């Protein structure tokens, strides 16, 4: 069985849709790959979900008898070609591919002006964490599964300004950057009035994204 026949159809579809599949195979294998791709429908309608991986696939001609060093050099050429092509077309998948290896984090920004007790803060942060995961899942965030596999790293910081407006400002900045965000409003059973904004949850997102939003805030 050939190498190409072992490739999952979803991987081929994703590779073509992302503009990062280079085919160095002989003609019959190229035709086979195209048939697998075409069977998946229009690439423009194929969205990358949070449960997919953005990959670069390099298919090498085995009939040429190239040595390992030659294969490595040719694959390097192909990889650079894919990258430049994706840059020219401003592929959304390229950005996801570049960020795939970066650690993913959830940051929780706590209002420090409410005088909440430790238990109350813990409960509100728990609400924020669940809210972030729920929202990320609904919008098929490409970072959710990666964050889960990394042990769900979280950072808790304190807001540097009093009032709900400070959380809203950070949330608006996150929204403009495409970062998942959720503001928790308390039910008002203990310590704070009903509807009080207590915590802003951010992510899962990359370190660079979250630093641009909340990197200036101090740990709680």
Automatic annotation (TrEMBL):
Family: Belongs to the PTH2 family.
GO MF, one annotated term: peptidyl-tRNA hydrolase activity
Entry-linked InterPro entries: Pep_tRNA_hydro_II_dom_sf, PTH2
Gene name of this polypeptide: LOC103524193
Protein's UniProt name: peptidyl-tRNA hydrolase
Cellular component per GO, a single term: cytosol
Keyword line: Hydrolase
Enzyme class, spelled out: hydrolase
Coiled coil (residue ranges): none
EC number annotated for this UniProt entry: 3.1.1.29
Lineage: Eukaryota, Metazoa, Ecdysozoa, Arthropoda, Hexapoda
Reactions that this protein is recorded to catalyse: an N-acyl-L-alpha-aminoacyl-tRNA + H2O = an N-acyl-L-amino acid + a tRNA + H(+)
Pfam families associated with the record: PTH2
Organism superkingdom: Eukaryota
Record organism: Diaphorina citri (Asian citrus psyllid)
């Amino acid at each position: 069985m050939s190498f190409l026949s072992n490739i999952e159809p979803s991987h081929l579809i994703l590779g073509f849709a992302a503009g990062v599949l280079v085919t160095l195979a002989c003609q019959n294998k190229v035709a086979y790959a195209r048939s697998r791709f075409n069977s998946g429908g229009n690439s423009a309608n194929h969205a990358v979900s949070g449960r997919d991986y953005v990959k670069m696939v390099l298919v090498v001609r085995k009939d040429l008898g190239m040595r390992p060093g030659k294969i490595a050099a040719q694959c390097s050429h192909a990889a650079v070609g894919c990258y430049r092509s994706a840059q020219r077309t401003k592929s959304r998948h390229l950005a996801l591919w570049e960020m795939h290896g970066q650690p993913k984090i959830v940051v929780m920004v706590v209002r420090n002006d409410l005088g909440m007790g430790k238990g109350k803060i813990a409960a509100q942060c728990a609400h924020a964490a669940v809210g972030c995961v729920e929202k990320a899942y609904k919008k098929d965030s490409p970072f959710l599964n990666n964050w889960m596999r990394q042990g769900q790293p979280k950072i808790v910081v304190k807001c540097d300004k009093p009032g709900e407006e400070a959380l809203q400002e950070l949330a608006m900045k996150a929204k403009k950057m495409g970062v998942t965000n959720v503001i928790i409003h308390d039910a008002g059973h203990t310590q704070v009035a009903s509807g009080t904004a207590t915590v802003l949850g951010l992510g899962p997102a990359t370190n660079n994204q979250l630093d641009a939003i909340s990197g200036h805030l101090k740990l709680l």
